[in-house]
Amino acid sequence: MTVFAVRPEATQEAVAAALGARVKNISVRLGEVTVTVAAADYLASAQLLRDAEGCKFEQLIDLCGLDYSEYGQGRWEGARYCVAVHLLSVSLNQRVRLKVFLPDDDFPVVDSVNEVWNAANWFEREAFDLYGIVFEGHADLRRILTDYGFIGHPFRKDFPTSGHVEMRYDPETKRVIYQPVSIEPREITPRIIREENYGGLH
């Protein structure tokens, strides 16, 4: 049996019908449907998108955090942190992006969707590790990419590119130690060296 891809406009209509008043914004851009819901409606919206007849988004294919603090060259006036989820309906051959902005910039928290799609597990841990987004109800929310003693969240726009600490092996104590970063920030300007007859060219 051949399953044809659903037109984005049809997907948009199905998603809008399933979520109803929970929809804060829904659009089609570059052939992709994006729907935004409030943090309070996020978990219920996820369950509806998975189960509603015209949606059937059985598979979570990506979940990531976003930091909007420098978006639009600092002209962004909304919440700083966002979670974006990419969903796939295998049975209906359609996709949707679900976005939720987190209301508290100082303590970004939102419900976990790991009970809805268990593929969210490591994605949520990554967003927690790199952005500091807390996923309420996640059974094992801990760092996944950085070290256990790592300080801060390296994908936040205000995180320094050189980090806060560095680690090295100390031969005297015979163990790995942490110390403040010793790298001085500097701007590197590449030098162009032109040689006569380089590569046999005249």
Topology of this structure?
Blueprint: H1 8-19, E1 23-29, E2 32-37, H2 42-51, E3 59-67, E4 81-89, E5 94-101, E6 109-111, H3 120-131, E7 134-136, E8 165-170, E9 175-180
Can you give a write-up of this model?
The chain is an alpha/beta fold and 202 residues long. It has a domain at 8-146: NADH:ubiquinone oxidoreductase Nqo5 subunit (Beta Polymerase, domain 2, 2-Layer Sandwich). It is 17% helix and 28% strand. It has three helices and nine strands, in the order H-E-E-H-E-E-E-E-H-E-E-E. It has a five-stranded mixed sheet. A two-stranded parallel sheet has the order 6-7. It has a two-stranded antiparallel ribbon with strand order 8-9. A hairpin with a 4-residue loop joins strand 8 (165-170) and strand 9. The chain is globular, with a radius of gyration of 23 Å. The relative contact order is 0.12.
- Under the CATH scheme, which class of the domain at 8-146? Alpha Beta
Straight-line N-to-C gap: 64 Å
- Superfamily (CATH H level) name of the domain at 8-146: NADH:ubiquinone oxidoreductase Nqo5 subunit
User: What order do the SSEs take from the amino end to the carboxyl end, as H and E?
Assistant: HEEHEEEEHEEE
Taken from the alpha-carbon principal axes, the silhouette is globular
CATH architectural category of the domain at 8-146: 2-Layer Sandwich
Give the uncertain stretches in residue-range form.
none
**Count of alpha/pi helices:** 3
Main beta-sheet strand count, sense and barrel state: 5 strands, mixed
Average of per-residue pLDDT values: 90
Rg of Cα set = 23 Å
CATH topology of the domain at 8-146: Beta Polymerase, domain 2
